[in-house]
Design a protein that fits this description.
- The complex is a heterodimer.
- Chain A is 39% helix and 23% strand.
- Chain B folds into two domains: 67 residues, no CATH class; 293 residues, no CATH class.
- Chain B is an all-alpha fold.
- Chain B starts with a helix and ends with a helix.
- Chain B contains 17 helices and two strands.
- Chain B has a two-stranded antiparallel sheet with strand order 1-2.
- The chains are: A alpha/beta, B mainly alpha.
- Chains A and B meet through helix 2, helix 3, helix 4 and helix 5 of A and helix 10, helix 11, helix 12, helix 13 and helix 17 of B.
Chain lengths: 262, 407
C-alpha cells in the first residue's frame, strides 16, 4: 500500500539559511504521526513546504489522495493542494475573525462546491440546493466538534480552546485525506488536551484520515502517535515508535542539553 | 473641572497661534497697524466652546463603546425597523413607488440631480464590492467610469453603435480593464495598492486627454446621442425622464446583483480574502482568481454607469473623471459603511444630494466635507450603516438545549 504522504529529501533555503536539510518522512493511511523538536527546528517550515505555501528548494513531496493517483505537490498552488485532499491548521490561529463560526466552516467548503458568478446572480435551484448543502454540512461538522452552540458567534469572540477546535472543523470541511495539525494543544489546559486527544482519535477512526501533527505536549504525543519524527536545526535526528524515540540518546540530548544525564 | 482647564488651555493656545493673522493688520501704504482685539476674543470663545463640545462627545462615545463591549447589543430604532421582515417589503415597494413617481412631479433640473445620485449609487455599490467586501483599497474607480463613458462615445462616433448595444460592451470593457489592472497588483495590499490604483486612474485620464486623434483630447466628445425609445423622437425633458428610469432600473439591478453576490459562495470567498489571505489559500480558495473576480465585478458597474453618464450629458471630456471623482466614490463607501449596500445608498444621498441642495454654502463645501469626514472617523468609524453579518438559519432541535448549557 502506498503511503499517503511521501516526502523525499526535502531541503529549504532562505537565502543563505538552510531551514530544512534532507528531510524524509512518510505517512500511511489511517496513521497518526507526530513531528517534534525544539523551537526553531523547522517543523512549521516543513508544514509550509508540504502544503506548498513555500516551494522547497530541493526534494519532492508526493501525495496520494484517498481516491486518486500519486501526485507531486511541491510547486503546486496551495489551494490546489487543499483541493487534492491536504488540510491544515495554523500554529498561531488564523481564523476569519470577523465572520461567524458557521461562515468560517462554510468558506472551507469552497473547493468542494462550484457555484460561479452567474449562479450567484441567477440563483438557480441547483445553486440554492448547493448553498443549503454547504450550510447543513458545515453545521454538521460544528456539531461533530461540539461547537454548534456558537454557530452564530463572531469567530474572534470564541474562547481559545474553541477557536482551536474551529480551526480543525474548518480543515475537516475541505474533506481531506491527510490532516496536518500545527500545535493543536498549544495553550490548552490538561483537560482540554485530553479531550483534544480523544477528538483526534475519533476523527482518524470515523473519517478514515491520516494525521500528521506538530506538538510540544509530550504526554499527548507519546500516547497519541504511532510513529514520531524528531527534528533539530532543520535535520531529522531520529524516528520510530514513541518508545524508541524517547530512549534515543540524540533526542534526549536535543531536548535536555549536552550535559544532562537523564 | 479638569476638562474645563484643558479647554481653557486649548483656547489660549489657539489665541496665541492665530494672533499674528487674526489680530494684527499692517497697512503698508499708510504705515499703520490696526489691532483687532475683538477677533482674539471671538477665537478664544469659539475654540473654548468647540474643544469643550469635542471632549464631551468623546467621553460619551467612550461610555457607549464600553456598553457595547460589555455584550448588550443595543440597536437603534431605525436598524430594528429595517430588521423587521414584515416591514421590509412594504418599505421596498414604497420607496420604489416614490422613485417611480418623482420625475413627473419635479423639474428637469431636479430629475438631473436624482440621475446623478443614482449613478453614484451604482458606482458606490461597484466600489463596495472591491473595498468593502474584498477589502482592497482602491482609488482609481473614476478610470473605469471613464472607460465606460468613452467606450459608448467612441463606439458611437466611429461605428454608429447605439446605447443599448454599448451598455453591455462598456460594462465588459471596464471589467476587462479591471482584471488587466488586477494582474500586476496581485501581490499588493493596503496603501501600496491604493497608490497603484490611483496611478492607474491618472494614466487613463492622461491618455484620454492626450490621445487627441482618437478621443478629441481635452475638448472631449460632443453630440453623443441620448437613448431612443423605439425610434420616437423625445424632447429633452422627456429624454431626461427616460434616462432617469434607465438609471433607476440599473441601480435596482445593481443592488440586487451585489447583494446576491455577497451572499454567495463567491462573496464568502471575497470576504475570506479580506480577513486572511494565507488561511484563504489553505482553505482551497484560489487567491488570484478571486482577486481578479473582485476587480472585474466591481469595475463592471462603473462601466455601466459610465455609458449612462455619457448618454445623459451627451458630452464628455476627461475633466469629468479626475481623481476627485474617485475620492468622492470612495468617500461614499466609507461614509455609508464598508460592505453595506444600504449604507452606500445613504452615503451617496449625503455626498451627492446635500451639496446640490446646499448651493448657498458651496464656497465652504470642501471644508464641510473634510469636517464631516474627520467627525465620521472619530465617532462612527464603521460608517452610517455598518455591514450586518448574515444570519443563517439552521434546523436543529438540540440547539436550544445546547445554548442553555454553559459556554
Amino acid at each position: 500500500m502506498e503511503p499517503v504522504l511521501d516526502v523525499t529529501a526535502v531541503s529549504m533555503n532562505f537565502g543563505g539559511l538552510r531551514a530544512l536539510n534532507d528531510v524524509e518522512l512518510k505517512v500511511s493511511s489511517g496513521e497518526i504521526v507526530a513531528l517534534i523538536g525544539p523551537n526553531g527546528a523547522g517543523k512549521t517550515t516543513f508544514f509550509n513546504c508540504i502544503t506548498s505555501i513555500y516551494t522547497p528548494t530541493e526534494g519532492e513531496v508526493w501525495f496520494t489522495p484517498r481516491k486518486g493517483v500519486r501526485t507531486r505537490v511541491n510547486g503546486m498552488k496551495p489551494n490546489l493542494v487543499t483541493a487534492l485532499g491536504m488540510a491544515r491548521t495554523f500554529q498561531n490561529i488564523r481564523l476569519f475573525k470577523n465572520m461567524s463560526v458557521l461562515e468560517n466552516v462554510m468558506i472551507a467548503r469552497h473547493c468542494r462546491t462550484k457555484a460561479g458568478i452567474l449562479g450567484a446572480l441567477l440563483r438557480s435551484p441547483a445553486v440554492c440546493r448547493e448553498e443549503k448543502e454547504i450550510v447543513d454540512r458545515s453545521y454538521e461538522l460544528l456539531k461533530y466538534m461540539g461547537l454548534h452552540k456558537f454557530y452564530d458567534e463572531q469567530a474572534c469572540n470564541l474562547p481559545y480552546g474553541a477557536q482551536r477546535r474551529l480551526e480543525i472543523a474548518r480543515a475537516l470541511a475541505t474533506e481531506p485525506t491527510l490532516l496536518l495539525l500545527d500545535e493543536p494543544a498549544a495553550g490548552m489546559n490538561p483537560q482540554e488536551t485530553e479531550s483534544l486527544k480523544q477528538l483526534v482519535l475519533r476523527i482518524r477512526d470515523e473519517m478514515d484520515m491520516a494525521i500528521l501533527l506538530i506538538e510540544h505536549d509530550m504526554s499527548m504525543v507519546m500516547s497519541l502517535s504511532e510513529r514520531i519524527y524528531v527534528m533539530e536545526y532543520g535535520c531529522l535526528i531520529a524516528h520510530g515508535t514513541p518508545a524508541e524515540v524517547s530512549s534515543d540518546p540524540r533526542v534526549i540530548k536535543a531536548y535536555l542539553g549536552e550535559d544532562a544525564h537523564a | 473641572m479638569n476638562e474645563l482647564k484643558k479647554s481653557i488651555l486649548v483656547s489660549i493656545w489657539f489665541m496665541f497661534l492665530t494672533f499674528p493673522i487674526m489680530v494684527i493688520r499692517v497697512n503698508s501704504i499708510e504705515k499703520t497697524v490696526v489691532w483687532r482685539w475683538e477677533n482674539l476674543a471671538l477665537i478664544g470663545i469659539g475654540s473654548f466652546v468647540l474643544s469643550f463640545v469635542w471632549r464631551w462627545a468623546l467621553r460619551r462615545k467612550e461610555v457607549s463603546d464600553a456598553v457595547a463591549d460589555s455584550g448588550s447589543k443595543e440597536t437603534g430604532k431605525f436598524s430594528r425597523m429595517l430588521d423587521n421582515p414584515a416591514l421590509r417589503l412594504p418599505l421596498q415597494i414604497g420607496f420604489l413607488a416614490l422613485f417611480m413617481a418623482i420625475p413627473w412631479v419635479v423639474t428637469t433640473y431636479q430629475t438631473n440631480i436624482l440621475i446623478s445620485f443614482l449613478l453614484y449609487v451604482v458606482l458606490g455599490l461597484g466600489l463596495n464590492v472591491i473595498v468593502g467586501v474584498a477589502g482592497l483599497l482602491f482609488l482609481g474607480h473614476a478610470a473605469f467610469y471613464a472607460i465606460g463613458a468613452y467606450s459608448y462615445a467612441l463606439l458611437n462616433q466611429y461605428f454608429g453603435l447605439g446605447f443599448w448595444i454599448s451598455l453591455p460592451i462598456g460594462g465588459i470593457l471596464a471589467a476587462l480593464a479591471g482584471v488587466a489592472l488586477a494582474f500586476p497588483v496581485l501581490r499588493l495590499r493596503g496603501d501600496y495598492l491604493a497608490i497603484v490604483t490611483l496611478g492607474f486612474g491618472e494614466i487613463v485620464r492622461l491618455l484620454l486627454e492626450n490621445w487627441s486623434n482618437l478621443t478629441g483630447g481635452p475638448s472631449g466628445i460632443s453630440n453623443i446621442p441620448r437613448p431612443g425609445l423605439m425610434d420616437a423622437k423625445l424632447s429633452v425633458a422627456d429624454a431626461n425622464i427616460y434616462i432617469y428610469y434607465i438609471v433607476l432600473a440599473l441601480a435596482i439591478i445593481t443592488i440586487i446583483a451585489v447583494s446576491r453576490l455577497k451572499d454567495s459562495r463567491i462573496g464568502r470567498a471575497l470576504q475570506a480574502l479580506r480577513e486572511d489571505e494565507v488561511a484563504c489559500e489553505a482553505m482551497g480558495i484560489d487567491r488570484v482568481g478571486v482577486k481578479l473576480m473582485a476587480f472585474g465585478l466591481g469595475t463592471a458597474w462603473a462601466g455601466f454607469a459610465g455609458v449612462v453618464f455619457a448618454a445623459k450629458t451627451t458630452f464628455i471630456n476627461p475633466a469629468s473623471f479626475t481623481f476627485f471623482e474617485s475620492a468622492i466614490i470612495l468617500s461614499i463607501v466609507v461614509l455609508g459603511g464598508m460592505g453595506s449596500n444600504l449604507g452606500v445608498i445613504l452615503g451617496s444621498a449625503f455626498l451627492v444630494l446635500l451639496p446640490e441642495y446646499m448651493r448657498a454654502f458651496s464656497e465652504y463645501r470642501m471644508i464641510l466635507f473634510a469636517t464631516a469626514m474627520v467627525l465620521m472617523m472619530v465617532f462612527r468609524p464603521q460608517g452610517l450603516i455598518p455591514e450586518k453579518r448574515r444570519v443563517y438559519t439552521v434546523v436543529d432541535p438540540e440547539l436550544n438545549t445546547a445554548k442553555g448549557g454553559q459556554i
